[in-house]
Amino acid sequence: MILTTLEGVPGKEIIKHFGIVQGSTVRAKNIGKDILAGFKNLVGGELQGYTELLQEARQEALDRMIQQANSIGANAVVNVRFATSSIAQGAAELYVYGTAVRVQ
After folding, report:
1. CB 25 within 8 A of CB 99
2. Selecting from 3.30.300.30, 3.30.110.70, 3.90.1200.10, 3.40.1010.10, what CATH number does the domain 2-103 have?
3. Which terminal residue of the chain has fewer beta carbons within 10 Å of its beta carbon, N or C?
4. Residue of 91 and 25 predicted with greater confidence
5. What Å distances lie between residue 101 and 11, 51, 63, 64, 93, CA to CA?
């Protein structure tokens, strides 16, 4: 599956549009990571536990979008975008979407 933030795939021709495909996941913080993040806030630096949590969420949302694109016969997704939103205190949704196409 070709994924791009561009409107097309360089060197390829879009021969069919399938429409919007999407994937999402909702993730919540956990108490262990919150405690470690609290200590890190005292001294500064990257909150590695949260970085890993977000990376896993991005990959899961992408995997779901790719699965949806595959199921309708696409071989590429163009104009890929990410969005986040707060669902509840301590929980957030990561959403990815794009346009499923077939290229040759």
Report:
1. no
2. 3.30.110.70
3. C
4. 25
5. 14, 31, 16, 16, 25
